[in-house]
Write a structure and sequence with these properties.
With 264 residues, the protein is α/β, with parallel strands linked by helices. Helix content is 36%, strand content 18%. The chain has one domain (7-137, 185-263): 3-Layer(aba) Sandwich (Rossmann fold), CATH 3.40.50. The chain has 10 helices and 8 strands. An 8-stranded mixed sheet has the order 1-2-4-3-5-6-7-8, with helices on both faces. Helix 1 links the parallel strand 3 and strand 4.
C-alpha cells in the first residue's frame, strides 16, 4: 500500500510527544482512530477526504508513534492532550470530529471540552453505550508467538472483529504494526457507558456510521441510535451493508459517500 501524501507533525503533552499526520485543504476534520490502532485506521479514506478538507490524524497517546499518558478514572487526559496539540496545529479554528470505535469515546470527550469549536461529532462503529451484552468474541492472543504465527492470529482477529469480508495482506500488516505499538488497553474503557454519559452532557450535531455486519452489534442498533437521537434528534445514521466494524477500511468509497455530507 502506497503511503498517502501527509506531513508528520509533533506536538507536546505532559507525557512526551504526540504524532500527527496532516494533509488536504479546507475546513479541518480530526479523525480519531480506534483501539489497538493508529492513524492508519483511516489510510483508505485520505484521498477522498483530503480533496475538500484539511485532515488531521493523530496517534492517540499510548498508540502508534505517540508517547503515553497515565489514566485513572477518565479519558480526559487523552482528550486534553489531543486538543492541546490541535490548537498548536490550527489555532482557534472550529473543526469536525470523527471517532472510530474507542476513538469515538475520546472524540466525545474532546467535543465536551471544546464545545464552541466543534461543528459536528461523527461516530463510526461506536462503542461505549454500556448496553447489556453477552458478546464474547473468540479473539486470540498473538503475544509470545513466532512472527509467522503472529500474522495468522492477526488475520483471525481481523476476521472475527474488524472485517466482514476477506482479510487482505495490507490489513494484516497494518493490524500487526498497530497492535505491536499499542500500550493502552482500550477494551475496558469501551465496555463502560462513557459515550452514553458524555452525550447526555452534549448539545451539538451528531452523525453515525456503522457497517451492517459490525461484530459488536447485538440486535441493539435501534437502542444505540435512540441514545444518539436523544442528544441530537436530527442525527443522520448511515448503515453500510456488507461491511464490518472497520467500515472505513472495508468500504472506503461508500464510507466517504456517507461521511462527506455530514461534514458540509
Amino acid at each position: 500500500m502506497r503511503p498517502p501524501d501527509l506531513a508528520l507533525h509533533r506536538t507536546r503533552h505532559s507525557g512526551g510527544s504526540l504524532a500527527w499526520r496532516v494533509g488536504g485543504i479546507g475546513p479541518p476534520v480530526v479523525l480519531v482512530h480506534g483501539g489497538s490502532g493508529s492513524w492508519t485506521h483511516w489510510i483508505r479514506n485520505i484521498p477522498a477526504l483530503g480533496e475538500s478538507h484539511q485532515i488531521l490524524l493523530p496517534d492517540m497517546p499510548g498508540f502508534g508513534e505517540s508517547e503515553g499518558l497515565p489514566l485513572s478514572d477518565s479519558l480526559d487526559p487523552l482528550a486534553g492532550a489531543l486538543l492541546d496539540g490541535l490548537r498548536t496545529l490550527i489555532g482557534e479554528r472550529s473543526f469536525h470530529l470523527v471517532g472510530f470505535s474507542f476513538g469515538g469515546l475520546v472524540a466525545a470527550r474532546m467535543a465536551l471540552l471544546a464545545r464552541p469549536h466543534v461543528h459536528r461529532l461523527v461516530l463510526v462503529g461506536a462503542s461505549g453505550f454500556g448496553l447489556p451484552t453477552s458478546l464474547r468474541l473468540p479473539l486470540k492472543s498473538w503475544r509470545g508467538l513466532a512472527p509467522s504465527e503472529q500474522l495468522a492470529i492477526h488475520a483471525h482477529n481481523l476476521h472475527v472483529l474488524m472485517l466482514a469480508g476477506g482479510v487482505d495482506d495490507d490489513a494484516i500488516q497494518l493490524q500487526a504494526a498497530n497492535a505491536q505499538r499499542a500500550r493502552l488497553n482500550s477494551r475496558p474503557w469501551s465496555n463502560r457507558p462513557i459515550l452514553r454519559h458524555t452525550l447526555g452532557e452534549l448539545s451539538l450535531p451528531l452523525g453515525a456510521i456503522w457497517g451492517g455486519c459490525d461484530a459488536i452489534l447485538q440486535d441493539d442498533l435501534d437502542r444505540r441510535i435512540a441514545v444518539l437521537r436523544k442528544c441530537d434528534p436530527a442525527c443522520p445514521v448511515e448503515i453500510i451493508e456488507g461491511a464490518g466494524h472497520w467500515v472505513a477500511y472495508e468500504a472506503p468509497d461508500r464510507f466517504a459517500a456517507a461521511l462527506l455530507p455530514m461534514l458540509t
